[in-house]
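User: For a teaching handout, I'd like to show students what a predicted protein-ligand complex looks like in token form. I'll give you the sequence and the SMILES for adenosine-5'-triphosphate. Please answer with just the structure.
Assistant: Understood, here is the input followed by the structure.
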Amino acid sequence: MNSQRIWRIGLTGGIGSGKSTVAGLLARHGAAVIDADAISRSVTATGGRAIAAIAQAFGPQMVGPDGAMDRQAMRDRIFQDVQAKRQLEAIIHPLVSQITAEQAQHALDTGHRCLVFDVPLLVESGERWRRQVDRVLVVDCSTDTQRQRVMARNGLPVQDIDRIITQQASRAQRLACADVVIANESLNLLELEAQVSQVAADFGL
Ligand SMILES: CC(C)(COP(=O)(O)OP(=O)(O)OC[C@H]1O[C@@H](n2cnc3c(N)ncnc32)[C@H](O)[C@@H]1O)[C@@H](O)C(=O)NCCC(=O)NCCS
Ligand SMILES: Nc1ncnc2c1ncn2[C@@H]1O[C@H](COP(=O)(O)OP(=O)(O)OP(=O)(O)O)[C@@H](O)[C@H]1O
């Protein structure tokens, strides 16, 4: 493929699929990674741009004494109440879009030719994200592997993980949107690196 062209890659996958790991590997190949989860965390951290709106919509108890959103309380709330989830997304997603666009412009200005948008909810967003990217790269694994990885990573109880998984697009829906799939199942990290190197080469990295 032409190494001079600009590639905008939408990287997505279910919770614990390995998106951030793949994003980190693509960054090592020279991609500029724009991480929607990290931006979402920054706007809900102490002094973040979403804090005032969150306190207004959910009550001041949803903001801790440090001025950051109480993430555990919010997780417990939104994955049990679809209305609350929509309300939080309506506050956070426009900010994420705005900061994403700023970071993408900065990446282009500093000479990057491959931009990777790490967006957990790319498929769920319908056309909103898909029309902004040239290719959709899905990191895929079984639901059981998702559970095991998330439990090992942050000790979330399995019923909480399952609640999140059921609120996300299904594996089949995600695969139906994919232009490229990284099958991150029964692979050790070296084997994953090899798959990512192949994908990176296809995008001029
Ligand atoms: C629910 C929150 C408080 C949980 O925080 P926590 O620190 O436990 O997890 P973290 O932010 O690292 O997210 C982990 C994963 O949860 C899943 N997840 C997060 N938000 C959502 C959501 N709105 N719908 C479905 N899955 C979600 C994603 O797979 C994500 O990668 C937080 O994720 C949040 O503020 N979510 C709303 C904003 C959002 O939609 N973020 C997703 C991408 S912009
Ligand atoms: N092939 C693999 N072998 C072993 N561990 C892996 C592999 N892929 C990912 N992991 C581990 O699984 C966990 C989840 O991976 P990662 O954080 O990249 O997923 P994610 O899709 O970004 O998750 P989330 O949506 O929750 O942010 C991490 O601890 C990571 O190190």
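For the handout, you might add this sentence: The chain has two domains: 1-31+114-205, 39-111.
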